[in-house]
UniProtKB/TrEMBL annotation:
This is Protein NUCLEAR FUSION DEFECTIVE 4-like. GO terms for cellular component: membrane. It holds the Pfam family NFD4_C. It comes from Prunus avium. The lineage of its organism: Eukaryota, Viridiplantae, Streptophyta, Embryophyta, Tracheophyta. Keywords: Membrane, Transmembrane, Transmembrane helix.
Length: 567
Protein backbone atom coordinates (compact mmCIF):
# COMPACT_ATOMS: atom_id res chain seq x y z
CA UNK A 1 0.00 0.00 0.00
CA UNK A 2 2.76 2.43 1.01
CA UNK A 3 4.77 1.56 -2.10
CA UNK A 4 1.77 2.37 -4.31
CA UNK A 5 1.35 5.71 -2.54
CA UNK A 6 5.03 6.51 -3.00
CA UNK A 7 4.92 5.56 -6.66
CA UNK A 8 1.83 7.67 -7.26
CA UNK A 9 3.38 10.70 -5.51
CA UNK A 10 6.61 10.33 -7.46
CA UNK A 11 4.67 10.08 -10.71
CA UNK A 12 2.79 13.27 -9.82
CA UNK A 13 6.05 15.09 -9.07
CA UNK A 14 7.59 13.88 -12.33
CA UNK A 15 4.49 15.00 -14.21
CA UNK A 16 4.84 18.38 -12.55
CA UNK A 17 8.49 18.62 -13.49
CA UNK A 18 7.92 17.90 -17.18
CA UNK A 19 5.80 21.01 -17.93
CA UNK A 20 8.23 23.13 -15.90
CA UNK A 21 11.21 21.74 -17.84
CA UNK A 22 9.40 22.57 -21.08
CA UNK A 23 8.76 26.12 -19.82
CA UNK A 24 12.44 26.52 -18.94
CA UNK A 25 13.65 25.37 -22.35
CA UNK A 26 11.08 27.54 -24.14
CA UNK A 27 11.62 30.57 -21.91
CA UNK A 28 13.41 33.85 -22.62
CA UNK A 29 16.03 33.23 -19.95
CA UNK A 30 17.09 29.87 -21.39
CA UNK A 31 17.50 31.64 -24.73
CA UNK A 32 19.88 34.04 -23.00
CA UNK A 33 21.87 31.15 -21.48
CA UNK A 34 22.09 29.33 -24.84
CA UNK A 35 23.13 32.57 -26.54
CA UNK A 36 25.94 33.04 -24.00
CA UNK A 37 27.38 29.65 -24.95
CA UNK A 38 27.02 30.24 -28.69
CA UNK A 39 28.65 33.66 -28.42
CA UNK A 40 31.44 32.18 -26.27
CA UNK A 41 32.31 30.03 -29.28
CA UNK A 42 31.99 32.84 -31.83
CA UNK A 43 35.21 34.74 -31.12
CA UNK A 44 37.79 32.43 -32.68
CA UNK A 45 39.01 35.22 -34.95
CA UNK A 46 40.79 36.77 -31.96
CA UNK A 47 43.07 33.71 -31.76
CA UNK A 48 44.69 34.47 -35.10
CA UNK A 49 47.72 35.87 -33.26
CA UNK A 50 48.27 32.43 -31.65
CA UNK A 51 48.19 30.20 -34.72
CA UNK A 52 49.32 32.72 -37.37
CA UNK A 53 52.94 31.81 -36.61
CA UNK A 54 52.19 28.21 -37.65
CA UNK A 55 50.66 29.39 -40.93
CA UNK A 56 53.60 31.69 -41.58
CA UNK A 57 56.29 29.07 -40.90
CA UNK A 58 54.56 26.05 -42.47
CA UNK A 59 53.52 27.78 -45.68
CA UNK A 60 56.56 30.10 -45.90
CA UNK A 61 54.70 33.42 -45.96
CA UNK A 62 56.18 36.87 -45.44
CA UNK A 63 54.49 39.42 -43.18
CA UNK A 64 52.61 41.12 -46.02
CA UNK A 65 51.05 37.81 -47.07
CA UNK A 66 50.22 36.95 -43.48
CA UNK A 67 48.60 40.36 -43.03
CA UNK A 68 46.64 39.72 -46.23
CA UNK A 69 45.28 36.58 -44.57
CA UNK A 70 44.51 38.70 -41.51
CA UNK A 71 42.59 41.13 -43.72
CA UNK A 72 40.44 38.36 -45.21
CA UNK A 73 39.80 37.10 -41.68
CA UNK A 74 38.63 40.58 -40.71
CA UNK A 75 36.66 40.85 -43.95
CA UNK A 76 34.80 37.65 -43.20
CA UNK A 77 34.28 38.54 -39.55
CA UNK A 78 32.83 41.97 -40.26
CA UNK A 79 30.96 41.70 -43.56
CA UNK A 80 27.77 40.19 -42.23
CA UNK A 81 25.25 41.73 -44.61
CA UNK A 82 24.47 38.30 -46.09
CA UNK A 83 23.71 36.82 -42.67
CA UNK A 84 21.59 39.88 -41.85
CA UNK A 85 19.52 39.59 -45.04
CA UNK A 86 19.09 35.84 -44.51
CA UNK A 87 18.03 36.57 -40.94
CA UNK A 88 15.30 38.93 -42.17
CA UNK A 89 13.51 36.14 -44.06
CA UNK A 90 14.47 32.89 -42.25
CA UNK A 91 14.22 31.70 -38.61
CA UNK A 92 17.17 31.92 -36.25
CA UNK A 93 17.82 28.15 -36.30
CA UNK A 94 18.46 28.21 -40.04
CA UNK A 95 20.90 31.13 -39.69
CA UNK A 96 22.82 29.29 -36.95
CA UNK A 97 23.05 26.05 -38.95
CA UNK A 98 24.38 27.86 -42.03
CA UNK A 99 27.02 29.54 -39.86
CA UNK A 100 28.01 26.21 -38.31
CA UNK A 101 28.60 24.64 -41.73
CA UNK A 102 30.73 27.61 -42.82
CA UNK A 103 32.77 27.54 -39.61
CA UNK A 104 33.65 23.87 -39.90
CA UNK A 105 34.44 24.02 -43.62
CA UNK A 106 36.75 27.04 -43.34
CA UNK A 107 38.82 26.10 -40.29
CA UNK A 108 39.00 22.39 -41.13
CA UNK A 109 40.63 23.24 -44.47
CA UNK A 110 43.10 25.59 -42.74
CA UNK A 111 43.98 22.82 -40.27
CA UNK A 112 44.56 20.31 -43.08
CA UNK A 113 46.82 22.85 -44.81
CA UNK A 114 48.90 23.57 -41.70
CA UNK A 115 49.45 19.89 -40.81
CA UNK A 116 50.31 19.32 -44.50
CA UNK A 117 47.68 16.63 -45.10
CA UNK A 118 46.74 18.29 -48.39
CA UNK A 119 48.82 19.96 -51.09
CA UNK A 120 50.05 23.42 -50.20
CA UNK A 121 47.13 25.72 -51.05
CA UNK A 122 47.53 28.88 -53.03
CA UNK A 123 47.32 32.18 -51.16
CA UNK A 124 43.85 32.94 -52.56
CA UNK A 125 42.61 29.58 -51.32
CA UNK A 126 43.86 30.24 -47.79
CA UNK A 127 42.21 33.66 -47.95
CA UNK A 128 38.96 31.99 -48.97
CA UNK A 129 39.16 29.40 -46.16
CA UNK A 130 39.80 31.92 -43.41
CA UNK A 131 37.21 34.36 -44.77
CA UNK A 132 34.60 31.57 -44.84
CA UNK A 133 35.40 30.42 -41.29
CA UNK A 134 35.47 33.95 -39.89
CA UNK A 135 32.22 34.92 -41.62
CA UNK A 136 30.42 32.24 -39.63
CA UNK A 137 30.58 34.41 -36.50
CA UNK A 138 28.22 36.88 -38.19
CA UNK A 139 25.63 34.12 -38.46
CA UNK A 140 26.04 33.49 -34.72
CA UNK A 141 25.62 37.22 -34.09
CA UNK A 142 22.53 37.42 -36.27
CA UNK A 143 20.95 34.26 -34.89
CA UNK A 144 21.67 34.70 -31.18
CA UNK A 145 22.55 38.34 -30.50
CA UNK A 146 19.82 39.99 -32.59
CA UNK A 147 17.21 37.61 -31.17
CA UNK A 148 18.17 38.46 -27.58
CA UNK A 149 18.16 42.21 -28.23
CA UNK A 150 14.64 41.97 -29.64
CA UNK A 151 13.55 39.84 -26.67
CA UNK A 152 14.94 42.43 -24.18
CA UNK A 153 14.66 45.81 -25.99
CA UNK A 154 14.78 47.94 -22.82
CA UNK A 155 17.99 46.26 -21.65
CA UNK A 156 19.74 46.20 -25.00
CA UNK A 157 22.92 47.97 -23.86
CA UNK A 158 23.37 45.53 -21.00
CA UNK A 159 22.40 42.54 -23.15
CA UNK A 160 24.77 43.52 -25.97
CA UNK A 161 27.57 44.06 -23.47
CA UNK A 162 27.13 40.61 -21.94
CA UNK A 163 26.80 38.77 -25.26
CA UNK A 164 29.72 40.52 -26.92
CA UNK A 165 31.62 40.08 -23.66
CA UNK A 166 31.38 36.32 -23.95
CA UNK A 167 32.62 36.63 -27.52
CA UNK A 168 35.54 38.67 -26.24
CA UNK A 169 36.33 35.96 -23.71
CA UNK A 170 36.14 33.33 -26.42
CA UNK A 171 39.84 33.47 -27.24
CA UNK A 172 40.88 32.91 -23.62
CA UNK A 173 38.30 30.14 -23.18
CA UNK A 174 39.56 28.35 -26.29
CA UNK A 175 43.14 28.70 -25.04
CA UNK A 176 42.32 26.95 -21.75
CA UNK A 177 40.39 24.18 -23.50
CA UNK A 178 43.04 23.50 -26.12
CA UNK A 179 45.77 23.31 -23.44
CA UNK A 180 43.70 20.55 -21.81
CA UNK A 181 42.70 18.71 -25.00
CA UNK A 182 45.70 19.35 -27.28
CA UNK A 183 48.59 20.34 -24.95
CA UNK A 184 51.18 22.69 -26.50
CA UNK A 185 49.93 22.01 -30.04
CA UNK A 186 48.81 25.32 -31.52
CA UNK A 187 48.08 23.62 -34.85
CA UNK A 188 45.37 21.55 -33.17
CA UNK A 189 43.91 24.78 -31.83
CA UNK A 190 42.69 25.40 -35.39
CA UNK A 191 40.87 22.05 -35.30
CA UNK A 192 39.26 22.94 -31.96
CA UNK A 193 38.07 26.23 -33.47
CA UNK A 194 36.57 24.21 -36.29
CA UNK A 195 34.41 21.76 -34.33
CA UNK A 196 33.54 23.25 -30.92
CA UNK A 197 31.41 26.26 -32.08
CA UNK A 198 29.57 23.91 -34.43
CA UNK A 199 28.73 21.55 -31.55
CA UNK A 200 27.38 24.43 -29.42
CA UNK A 201 25.18 25.80 -32.21
CA UNK A 202 23.76 22.39 -33.14
CA UNK A 203 22.88 21.51 -29.52
CA UNK A 204 21.08 24.79 -28.76
CA UNK A 205 19.90 25.72 -32.24
CA UNK A 206 16.15 25.29 -31.64
CA UNK A 207 16.10 27.18 -28.33
CA UNK A 208 17.07 30.50 -29.97
CA UNK A 209 13.93 32.26 -31.17
CA UNK A 210 12.23 35.66 -30.84
CA UNK A 211 9.57 36.01 -28.16
CA UNK A 212 7.19 38.71 -27.01
CA UNK A 213 9.08 41.32 -24.98
CA UNK A 214 7.68 41.36 -21.44
CA UNK A 215 9.31 43.69 -18.93
CA UNK A 216 10.09 42.05 -15.59
CA UNK A 217 10.55 44.26 -12.54
CA UNK A 218 13.79 42.52 -11.54
CA UNK A 219 15.15 42.24 -15.08
CA UNK A 220 18.20 44.44 -14.52
CA UNK A 221 19.02 42.58 -11.29
CA UNK A 222 19.07 39.30 -13.21
CA UNK A 223 21.47 40.76 -15.75
CA UNK A 224 23.74 41.87 -12.91
CA UNK A 225 23.80 38.28 -11.68
CA UNK A 226 24.88 37.19 -15.16
CA UNK A 227 27.51 39.93 -15.00
CA UNK A 228 28.91 38.64 -11.69
CA UNK A 229 29.30 35.15 -13.16
CA UNK A 230 30.98 36.37 -16.33
CA UNK A 231 33.33 38.68 -14.40
CA UNK A 232 34.28 35.79 -12.12
CA UNK A 233 34.99 33.67 -15.19
CA UNK A 234 37.15 36.41 -16.70
CA UNK A 235 39.12 36.90 -13.46
CA UNK A 236 39.64 33.16 -13.11
CA UNK A 237 40.98 32.85 -16.66
CA UNK A 238 43.18 35.92 -16.12
CA UNK A 239 44.63 34.39 -12.96
CA UNK A 240 45.19 31.03 -14.64
CA UNK A 241 46.84 32.66 -17.65
CA UNK A 242 49.33 34.46 -15.42
CA UNK A 243 50.00 31.42 -13.20
CA UNK A 244 50.50 29.13 -16.20
CA UNK A 245 53.33 31.35 -17.40
CA UNK A 246 55.13 30.99 -14.07
CA UNK A 247 54.35 27.38 -13.12
CA UNK A 248 54.59 24.28 -15.29
CA UNK A 249 51.08 22.76 -15.33
CA UNK A 250 50.53 19.03 -15.74
CA UNK A 251 47.92 17.65 -18.11
CA UNK A 252 45.63 16.95 -15.13
CA UNK A 253 45.99 20.56 -13.94
CA UNK A 254 45.01 21.88 -17.37
CA UNK A 255 42.01 19.53 -17.35
CA UNK A 256 40.99 20.83 -13.91
CA UNK A 257 41.25 24.43 -15.10
CA UNK A 258 39.10 23.65 -18.13
CA UNK A 259 36.51 21.94 -15.92
CA UNK A 260 36.20 25.10 -13.78
CA UNK A 261 35.83 27.20 -16.94
CA UNK A 262 33.00 24.93 -18.13
CA UNK A 263 31.34 25.18 -14.70
CA UNK A 264 31.32 28.99 -14.95
CA UNK A 265 29.89 28.78 -18.48
CA UNK A 266 26.95 26.67 -17.27
CA UNK A 267 26.19 28.67 -14.10
CA UNK A 268 23.84 31.06 -15.98
CA UNK A 269 21.58 28.03 -16.49
CA UNK A 270 20.87 28.03 -12.74
CA UNK A 271 19.78 31.67 -12.94
CA UNK A 272 17.57 30.90 -15.94
CA UNK A 273 15.88 28.05 -14.02
CA UNK A 274 15.43 30.29 -10.97
CA UNK A 275 13.70 33.02 -12.99
CA UNK A 276 11.47 30.56 -14.80
CA UNK A 277 10.52 29.06 -11.40
CA UNK A 278 9.39 32.53 -10.29
CA UNK A 279 7.23 32.85 -13.40
CA UNK A 280 5.94 29.29 -12.90
CA UNK A 281 4.80 30.09 -9.36
CA UNK A 282 3.17 33.35 -10.48
CA UNK A 283 0.98 31.39 -12.88
CA UNK A 284 -0.46 29.43 -9.93
CA UNK A 285 -1.63 32.59 -8.11
CA UNK A 286 -5.35 33.13 -8.82
CA UNK A 287 -6.20 36.48 -10.37
CA UNK A 288 -9.48 38.14 -9.38
CA UNK A 289 -11.64 39.16 -12.34
CA UNK A 290 -11.97 42.92 -12.84
CA UNK A 291 -14.97 44.45 -11.02
CA UNK A 292 -15.39 47.37 -13.37
CA UNK A 293 -15.47 47.28 -17.14
CA UNK A 294 -14.68 50.56 -18.83
CA UNK A 295 -16.61 51.11 -22.06
CA UNK A 296 -15.06 53.35 -24.68
CA UNK A 297 -17.19 56.01 -26.28
CA UNK A 298 -18.11 55.33 -29.90
CA UNK A 299 -16.10 58.36 -31.04
CA UNK A 300 -12.97 57.11 -29.18
CA UNK A 301 -13.44 53.64 -30.67
CA UNK A 302 -13.61 55.17 -34.14
CA UNK A 303 -10.45 57.20 -33.47
CA UNK A 304 -8.59 54.09 -32.30
CA UNK A 305 -9.80 52.18 -35.37
CA UNK A 306 -8.67 54.99 -37.66
CA UNK A 307 -5.25 55.10 -36.01
CA UNK A 308 -4.77 51.35 -36.31
CA UNK A 309 -5.83 51.43 -39.97
CA UNK A 310 -3.29 54.18 -40.58
CA UNK A 311 -0.56 52.13 -38.89
CA UNK A 312 -1.42 49.10 -41.03
CA UNK A 313 -1.29 51.28 -44.15
CA UNK A 314 2.12 52.68 -43.15
CA UNK A 315 3.42 49.17 -42.45
CA UNK A 316 2.28 47.95 -45.84
CA UNK A 317 3.70 50.90 -47.74
CA UNK A 318 7.19 50.72 -46.20
CA UNK A 319 9.51 47.96 -47.33
CA UNK A 320 12.97 47.25 -46.00
CA UNK A 321 14.57 49.16 -48.89
CA UNK A 322 11.84 51.66 -49.73
CA UNK A 323 10.67 55.12 -48.67
CA UNK A 324 14.14 56.70 -48.74
CA UNK A 325 13.04 60.34 -48.77
CA UNK A 326 10.79 60.23 -45.69
CA UNK A 327 13.40 60.26 -42.95
CA UNK A 328 11.96 59.11 -39.58
CA UNK A 329 12.86 60.62 -36.23
CA UNK A 330 15.88 59.19 -34.42
CA UNK A 331 14.89 56.06 -32.55
CA UNK A 332 12.09 55.12 -34.95
CA UNK A 333 12.35 52.16 -37.31
CA UNK A 334 14.41 53.14 -40.35
CA UNK A 335 14.40 51.12 -43.53
CA UNK A 336 17.77 49.75 -44.63
CA UNK A 337 18.43 52.44 -47.25
CA UNK A 338 17.15 55.23 -44.99
CA UNK A 339 19.69 54.21 -42.38
CA UNK A 340 22.60 53.64 -44.78
CA UNK A 341 22.12 57.06 -46.41
CA UNK A 342 21.73 58.85 -43.09
CA UNK A 343 24.46 61.27 -41.95
CA UNK A 344 24.65 59.64 -38.51
CA UNK A 345 25.48 56.29 -40.12
CA UNK A 346 28.14 57.90 -42.31
CA UNK A 347 29.82 59.43 -39.25
CA UNK A 348 29.71 56.03 -37.54
CA UNK A 349 31.26 54.52 -40.69
CA UNK A 350 34.24 56.91 -40.56
CA UNK A 351 34.75 56.43 -36.81
CA UNK A 352 34.55 52.64 -37.25
CA UNK A 353 37.01 52.73 -40.15
CA UNK A 354 39.54 54.55 -37.97
CA UNK A 355 38.88 52.88 -34.62
CA UNK A 356 38.08 49.24 -35.38
CA UNK A 357 40.37 49.18 -38.42
CA UNK A 358 43.30 50.17 -36.21
CA UNK A 359 42.26 47.79 -33.42
CA UNK A 360 42.05 44.82 -35.78
CA UNK A 361 45.49 45.71 -37.15
CA UNK A 362 46.98 45.82 -33.65
CA UNK A 363 45.40 42.51 -32.58
CA UNK A 364 46.51 40.71 -35.76
CA UNK A 365 50.11 41.89 -35.36
CA UNK A 366 50.40 41.30 -31.63
CA UNK A 367 52.34 38.04 -32.04
CA UNK A 368 54.86 39.63 -34.39
CA UNK A 369 55.13 42.72 -32.16
CA UNK A 370 56.14 40.54 -29.21
CA UNK A 371 58.60 38.63 -31.41
CA UNK A 372 60.20 41.82 -32.75
CA UNK A 373 60.72 43.12 -29.21
CA UNK A 374 62.36 39.87 -28.09
CA UNK A 375 59.59 38.39 -25.91
CA UNK A 376 59.52 34.55 -25.59
CA UNK A 377 56.68 32.53 -27.15
CA UNK A 378 54.88 31.93 -23.83
CA UNK A 379 54.86 35.65 -23.10
CA UNK A 380 53.46 36.39 -26.56
CA UNK A 381 50.55 34.04 -25.89
CA UNK A 382 50.03 35.97 -22.64
CA UNK A 383 49.59 39.17 -24.68
CA UNK A 384 46.91 37.46 -26.78
CA UNK A 385 45.14 36.22 -23.62
CA UNK A 386 45.31 39.71 -22.09
CA UNK A 387 43.72 41.23 -25.19
CA UNK A 388 40.97 38.62 -25.13
CA UNK A 389 40.19 39.03 -21.41
CA UNK A 390 40.31 42.83 -21.40
CA UNK A 391 38.35 42.82 -24.64
CA UNK A 392 35.67 41.11 -22.56
CA UNK A 393 35.82 43.77 -19.84
CA UNK A 394 35.58 46.50 -22.48
CA UNK A 395 32.52 44.91 -24.07
CA UNK A 396 30.66 44.20 -20.84
CA UNK A 397 31.37 47.34 -18.87
CA UNK A 398 30.87 49.68 -21.84
CA UNK A 399 27.33 48.28 -22.03
CA UNK A 400 26.61 48.55 -18.29
CA UNK A 401 28.44 51.85 -17.72
CA UNK A 402 27.07 53.63 -20.80
CA UNK A 403 23.56 52.41 -19.92
CA UNK A 404 23.87 53.79 -16.38
CA UNK A 405 25.30 57.12 -17.56
CA UNK A 406 22.57 57.47 -20.18
CA UNK A 407 19.62 56.55 -17.92
CA UNK A 408 20.72 58.52 -14.84
CA UNK A 409 22.49 61.55 -16.31
CA UNK A 410 21.48 61.55 -20.02
CA UNK A 411 25.10 61.23 -21.12
CA UNK A 412 25.14 60.35 -24.85
CA UNK A 413 26.38 56.82 -25.49
CA UNK A 414 28.33 58.26 -28.42
CA UNK A 415 30.56 60.21 -26.01
CA UNK A 416 31.92 56.98 -24.55
CA UNK A 417 32.92 55.87 -28.05
CA UNK A 418 34.95 59.08 -28.43
CA UNK A 419 36.72 58.41 -25.14
CA UNK A 420 37.62 54.85 -26.18
CA UNK A 421 39.11 56.05 -29.46
CA UNK A 422 41.35 58.52 -27.64
CA UNK A 423 42.40 55.79 -25.21
CA UNK A 424 43.36 53.35 -27.98
CA UNK A 425 45.47 55.99 -29.76
CA UNK A 426 47.60 56.21 -26.60
CA UNK A 427 48.08 52.43 -26.64
CA UNK A 428 49.41 52.52 -30.21
CA UNK A 429 51.95 55.16 -29.21
CA UNK A 430 53.21 52.87 -26.42
CA UNK A 431 53.98 50.24 -29.09
CA UNK A 432 55.50 52.75 -31.51
CA UNK A 433 57.83 54.00 -28.77
CA UNK A 434 58.21 50.94 -26.50
CA UNK A 435 59.36 51.01 -22.90
CA UNK A 436 59.76 48.11 -20.43
CA UNK A 437 56.36 46.43 -20.06
CA UNK A 438 54.74 48.66 -22.68
CA UNK A 439 53.29 45.72 -24.64
CA UNK A 440 51.54 44.48 -21.48
CA UNK A 441 49.98 47.93 -21.00
CA UNK A 442 49.10 48.21 -24.68
CA UNK A 443 47.49 44.73 -24.69
CA UNK A 444 45.17 45.75 -21.85
CA UNK A 445 44.20 49.11 -23.37
CA UNK A 446 43.73 47.70 -26.89
CA UNK A 447 41.56 44.91 -25.48
CA UNK A 448 39.36 47.30 -23.48
CA UNK A 449 38.94 49.88 -26.25
CA UNK A 450 38.40 47.30 -28.99
CA UNK A 451 35.69 45.51 -27.03
CA UNK A 452 33.99 48.74 -25.99
CA UNK A 453 33.87 50.07 -29.56
CA UNK A 454 32.03 46.96 -30.77
CA UNK A 455 29.39 47.02 -28.04
CA UNK A 456 28.86 50.76 -28.37
CA UNK A 457 28.60 50.58 -32.17
CA UNK A 458 25.92 47.87 -32.11
CA UNK A 459 23.96 49.59 -29.33
CA UNK A 460 24.07 53.04 -30.94
CA UNK A 461 22.80 51.62 -34.25
CA UNK A 462 19.86 49.95 -32.48
CA UNK A 463 18.99 53.18 -30.67
CA UNK A 464 19.28 55.57 -33.61
CA UNK A 465 17.71 53.41 -36.33
CA UNK A 466 15.29 51.07 -34.50
CA UNK A 467 15.04 47.29 -34.26
CA UNK A 468 12.86 46.41 -37.25
CA UNK A 469 15.79 45.80 -39.62
CA UNK A 470 18.45 45.51 -36.94
CA UNK A 471 19.70 42.13 -38.20
CA UNK A 472 20.90 43.80 -41.39
CA UNK A 473 21.76 47.26 -40.06
CA UNK A 474 24.17 46.17 -37.33
CA UNK A 475 25.99 44.00 -39.88
CA UNK A 476 26.15 46.95 -42.28
CA UNK A 477 27.46 49.15 -39.48
CA UNK A 478 30.67 47.17 -39.11
CA UNK A 479 31.48 47.09 -42.85
CA UNK A 480 34.02 49.87 -42.40
CA UNK A 481 36.26 47.82 -40.09
CA UNK A 482 37.54 45.32 -42.73
CA UNK A 483 38.17 48.20 -45.12
CA UNK A 484 40.17 49.97 -42.42
CA UNK A 485 41.94 46.71 -41.61
CA UNK A 486 42.96 46.19 -45.26
CA UNK A 487 44.42 49.66 -45.68
CA UNK A 488 46.02 49.95 -42.24
CA UNK A 489 47.09 46.31 -41.85
CA UNK A 490 48.09 45.17 -45.33
CA UNK A 491 49.01 48.41 -47.09
CA UNK A 492 50.58 50.23 -44.13
CA UNK A 493 51.69 47.95 -41.28
CA UNK A 494 52.62 44.85 -43.30
CA UNK A 495 54.55 46.72 -45.99
CA UNK A 496 56.43 48.89 -43.49
CA UNK A 497 57.33 45.78 -41.45
CA UNK A 498 58.66 43.97 -44.53
CA UNK A 499 60.64 47.05 -45.54
CA UNK A 500 62.39 47.10 -42.16
CA UNK A 501 62.98 43.33 -42.34
CA UNK A 502 64.56 43.63 -45.80
CA UNK A 503 66.82 46.38 -44.50
CA UNK A 504 68.05 44.06 -41.76
CA UNK A 505 68.66 41.29 -44.32
CA UNK A 506 70.65 43.67 -46.51
CA UNK A 507 72.81 44.67 -43.53
CA UNK A 508 73.67 40.96 -43.09
CA UNK A 509 74.45 40.60 -46.79
CA UNK A 510 71.41 38.38 -47.44
CA UNK A 511 68.50 38.56 -49.89
CA UNK A 512 64.83 37.62 -49.58
CA UNK A 513 65.35 34.34 -51.47
CA UNK A 514 67.97 33.19 -48.96
CA UNK A 515 65.48 32.96 -46.05
CA UNK A 516 62.13 31.17 -45.82
CA UNK A 517 60.55 33.47 -43.26
CA UNK A 518 60.94 37.25 -43.31
CA UNK A 519 61.44 38.47 -39.73
CA UNK A 520 62.16 41.92 -38.30
CA UNK A 521 63.71 42.46 -34.85
CA UNK A 522 63.80 45.68 -32.85
CA UNK A 523 61.62 48.60 -31.81
CA UNK A 524 61.86 50.22 -35.25
CA UNK A 525 59.82 47.40 -36.88
CA UNK A 526 56.46 48.92 -35.88
CA UNK A 527 57.45 52.50 -34.97
CA UNK A 528 56.21 54.30 -38.07
CA UNK A 529 53.18 52.09 -38.70
CA UNK A 530 51.81 52.40 -35.15
CA UNK A 531 52.44 56.14 -35.14
CA UNK A 532 50.18 56.26 -38.19
CA UNK A 533 47.58 54.11 -36.40
CA UNK A 534 47.62 56.51 -33.43
CA UNK A 535 47.05 59.51 -35.72
CA UNK A 536 44.24 57.80 -37.65
CA UNK A 537 42.46 56.72 -34.46
CA UNK A 538 42.68 60.22 -32.97
CA UNK A 539 41.13 61.59 -36.17
CA UNK A 540 38.30 59.07 -35.71
CA UNK A 541 37.78 60.40 -32.18
CA UNK A 542 37.41 63.95 -33.53
CA UNK A 543 34.88 62.77 -36.11
CA UNK A 544 32.86 60.91 -33.47
CA UNK A 545 32.55 64.16 -31.51
CA UNK A 546 30.33 65.43 -34.36
CA UNK A 547 27.94 62.55 -33.68
CA UNK A 548 27.98 63.41 -29.97
CA UNK A 549 26.79 66.92 -30.77
CA UNK A 550 24.15 65.67 -33.23
CA UNK A 551 22.64 63.14 -30.80
CA UNK A 552 22.80 65.17 -27.59
CA UNK A 553 19.12 66.13 -27.70
CA UNK A 554 18.03 62.60 -28.59
CA UNK A 555 19.78 61.03 -25.59
CA UNK A 556 18.26 63.60 -23.23
CA UNK A 557 14.82 62.12 -23.99
CA UNK A 558 13.30 58.80 -22.95
CA UNK A 559 14.52 56.56 -25.76
CA UNK A 560 12.90 53.40 -24.33
CA UNK A 561 9.42 54.86 -23.85
CA UNK A 562 7.80 53.14 -26.84
CA UNK A 563 9.15 49.74 -25.78
CA UNK A 564 7.72 50.15 -22.28
CA UNK A 565 4.34 51.07 -23.75
CA UNK A 566 4.44 48.06 -26.08
CA UNK A 567 5.34 45.72 -23.20
Amino acid sequence: MSSSINSSSSSRSSCGLCPFAVQVIKGRWFTVFASFLIMAGAGATYLFGVYSKDIKSTLGYDQTTLNLLGFFKDLGANVGVLSGLIGEVTPAWFVLLVGSAMNFAGYFMIWLSVIEKIAKPKVWQMCLYICLGANSQNFANTGALVTCVKNFPESRGVMLGLLKGFTGLSGAIFTQLYLAIYPNDSKSLILLIGWLPVALSVVFVYTIRPMKAVKQQNELRVFYHFLYISVSLALFILAMSLIQKQVAFSQAAYAGTSAVVCLFLFLPLAIAIREELVLWNLKKIPVDPPTEVSIEKPQEIQEIKDDSDLQVQNTKSTTCFGDICNKPERGEDYTILQALLNMDMMILFIATFCGLGSSLTAVDNLGQIGESLGYPTKTISTFVSLVSIWNYFGRVFSGFVSETLMVKWNVPRTLMMTFMLVLSSLAYLSIAFPFPGSVYVASVIIGVSFGAQLTLLFTIISELFGLKYYATLFNCGQLASPLGSYILNVKVTGMLYDREALKQLAEKGLTRSSVKELTCLGGQCYRLSFSILAAVTFFGALVSLILVMRTRKFYKGDIYKKYREAA
